[in-house]
Amino acid sequence: MDFIARHLGPDAKEAKDMLAHVGFDSVEALVNAAIPQSIRMDDALDMPQALSETDAQAKLRAYADKNVVLKSFYGQGYSDTITPAVIRRGLVEDAGWYTAYTPYQPEISQGRLEALLNFQTMVQDLTGLPIANASLLDEASAVAEAVGLMSRAVKKGRRVLLDSRLHPQVLTVAAERARAIDLEVEIADLSNGVVGEDLVGAVVAYTGTEGDIFDPRAVIEEIHSRGGLVSVAADLLSLLLLEGPGTFGADIVVGSSQRFGVPLFFGGPHAAFMSVTDKLKRQMPGRLVGVSVDAEGRPAYRLALQTREQHIRRERATSNICTAQALLANVASMYAVYHGPEGLKEIANRVHSLAASFAAAVEAKGLKISSSEFFDTVTVSGVDAAGIKSSLETAGYLVRTIGKDKVSVSFGESATQGDVAVLADAFGASAVDNADYALPEAVARTTEALTHEIFNSIHSETQMMRYLRKLSDKDLALDRTMIPLGSCTMKLNPTAAMEPITWPEFANIHPFSPDNTTEGWRALIDELEGWLAELTGYAKVSIQPNAGSQGELAGLLAIHRYHVANGDTNRDIVLIPASAHGTNAASATLANLRVVVVKTAEDGSIDLEDLDAKIAKHGENMAGIMITYPSTHGVFDPEVREVCDKVHAAGGQVYIDGANMNALTGWAQPGQFGGDVSHLNLHKTFTIPHGGGGPGVGPIGVAEHLIPFLPTDAAADELDPTNPTPVGTGVPITASQFGSAGVLPITWAYIAMTGGEGLTDATSHAILGANYLANQLNDSFPILYTGNQGLVAHECILDLRELTDASGVTAADVAKRLIDFGFHAPTLAFPVAGTLMVEPTESEDIAELDRFIEAMRTIRAEIQEIIDGKVAYEDSVIRHAPYTALSVSSDDWEYSFSREKAAWPVTSLRLNKYFPPVRRLDEAYGDRNLVCSCPPPEAFDFDADSDSTEEA
């Protein structure tokens, strides 16, 4: 059986049965009716024939074999680390973890929320600040986010100081992002003090890119005295031995958690972190996990302060971040849990000791090092840098050269004393017995960290194996059930595509490895970019953006820079339909563009009259329009070409959000029906798993005229962060040239195994599944918007508003009740309040679709009982859903409905029942009593007072 047959849920007979309900003889006839002819492709896709799973893996093996895995002593923000096998097998490679969705429904996400809370607690403890988020995208963009946060908090200043001791790629990304929001950027060695006024703040390196350590307290005090804030970019492992910057008065601490067990992955995905002072918590970007209580007063985890998020605040959001790096943050948190504080200190001390041994050897030879105070990195000056680098490369080692006469050597977890000898020999030195390089006493750590029981109780493999299983068992992921989330495309993540990402020849490659050692990676990426260009109809694709939100930002910056290069500096307005994804408006704000909203027509399409009015008013200043296609309303708008033509006629560019490419691939190309630029979500259409909120990849495709403005390499020698990037070029979006390269083999394998015909077939079946659900549920929950012949695209919106008016039952109530049937809820209240947006994907067979239909019809009958007056809403089974095993087995049952109705409302659940670990959460309580670190164990003592969650 070929891969596509295994990827598609319905077989031929099931598809025929589904088509009969929808009223079509074939899938092709259905798609021909649903997708407007005006946007259809003229020619078939020019794609290679589909490979079998075995052949695809063999080709990936050939690519992997072209890579040379050098022992990595390069550093510059990326460190050698060891992923414990139990974490690799039990988390990275376990579908219960990697197929989970973002934890917006907390009752079914308690396991991954606990893991992320562990991550936050770890970061808070090590950095010395009280609030940390549940991860950001990479270190460079985290520093950029810190600059943005300082700018929002200190409104009077317009200058930001960036420490020249930051890593070069961090400097480049942060400087360009700061300039994009009209900040003046000054780069200086902050260890020499501070000059100037009008500051929003500064970013200080702790430690420096060449390895030096300096006490930041004087700089922090000086910046504060001038009204600015201070962000510190820190190495997380070093903070086991160095004091957390928060104890010195830092307002924000950022960095990467990569060296906590996350492979190098040729540059990503790697979870960044941010911690802040209490006063900045409501402006902090990214997601924040907090502790609340459920309906029975038990502690329960949730995403806190969600009103800050882009999907709610839109252009007023603190960030455009949607997908972060949750899966990798979980790896880092489990690494800390597994090793514990003593184990982590042992690793840190060993790393420092090896660096000291190397430093002693080269100094004994008479060579000069940049600083005698260092953690893991020693930079040797006055040497033949190229010659040493070349000789070490021949010996299988990767080190960093800085200019012509400096070599930087950075030690990681797997380094040995034998490596020290090889490295020293390349400098003409020999190992010595005495290596006395103490860390500076002024910043040596005295504060205890990781004191919570979770970091001090799970150190055997047996314990870790069971802890990972315990957490995943609390959650609903794709390995248990369909996740019918509209706009998020939770489809099969093929195992054959997932396996290769942990092969050492892919996973253990440093992003700054020489080109001749990464030929396999570069060939794979080049081929993938070519395939994506063909699928989208664009001239060229860049895979650099490491999330859909970053793809949006990259696309908008390309448009803006194109206008500026043409002298149209006034074009700074972006039209955005009211139904657009929340990230669209937030991304426009980050690109320093003004947002003008275009109304939605009665049928859910763009209101053309309002569009004409907005173009007439803003045309001369219009940069472009952002369109999601098919629309977020789940409909193929037939007038999309007309919209594009109107915008082009006024001199604007068209950005087509590619989040819904699962309804287009193989049938229509955004680059051919009017788009100038689109981003794709490889974690949606192209099967990179969501991982509980990341990793994501958001590549952009552009038309010919925008190619010069594609993202550039942040580490390129020709870039000078002290000066703005030339107008006629693009800017870097992420720290590494290829973004989250480590997960690209997944998309490569999916496309290779599917082929052009298979991709077209997958789209067809996605549309079939959505229309089958719409057809079967329309009588119970009216479909809000439909297109040609009453059809929808790959998703549909169930309208509950009239039912809510008649019964009091809300869409949120239905979402919670679905948990009792073992389902993740559809997308709640987006893009229309009071609705549920459902997307089944092509991977679900008819049995799973029918199980969902049965659940929704059963819930509809429960709503009818309220409407008919048989039960009051407050007393109904829906109002109190969901139900835990503890609640239905308790001696106390105070409800009028039976335990069976609560927990086993349909017969099939008697054989396959999921119980959530908590009852419905009290969302407001968690925001009023914000707790964002691990609660004490006694908080979960069921024999104690239930009101045990206090502000920490």
TrEMBL record:
Enzyme class: oxidoreductase
GO biological process per UniProt: glycine decarboxylation via glycine cleavage system
Database matches in Pfam families: GcvP2_C, GDC-P
Alphabetical keyword list: Oxidoreductase, Pyridoxal phosphate
GO (cellular component) term, any one: glycine cleavage complex
Catalytic activity: N(6)-[(R)-lipoyl]-L-lysyl-[glycine-cleavage complex H protein] + glycine + H(+) = N(6)-[(R)-S(8)-aminomethyldihydrolipoyl]-L-lysyl-[glycine-cleavage complex H protein] + CO2
Domain Glycine cleavage system P-protein N-terminal: 6-426, 436-707
Ranges of residues in domain Glycine dehydrogenase C-terminal: 762-883
MF GO annotations: glycine binding; glycine dehydrogenase (decarboxylating) activity; pyridoxal phosphate binding
EC number annotated for this UniProt entry: 1.4.4.2
Cofactor(s) this protein cannot do without: pyridoxal 5'-phosphate
Domain of life of the organism encoding this protein: Bacteria
Residues the record lists as N6-(pyridoxal phosphate)lysine modifications: 684
SUPFAM superfamilies with a match to the protein in the record: PLP-dependent transferases
Subunit (UniProt): The glycine cleavage system is composed of four proteins: P, T, L and H.
Similarity annotation: Belongs to the GcvP family.
Role summary: The glycine cleavage system catalyzes the degradation of glycine. The P protein binds the alpha-amino group of glycine through its pyridoxal phosphate cofactor; CO(2) is released and the remaining methylamine moiety is then transferred to the lipoamide cofactor of the H protein.
Protein's name in the database: glycine dehydrogenase (aminomethyl-transferring)
Species of the source: Corynebacterium ammoniagenes
Encoding gene per record: gcvP
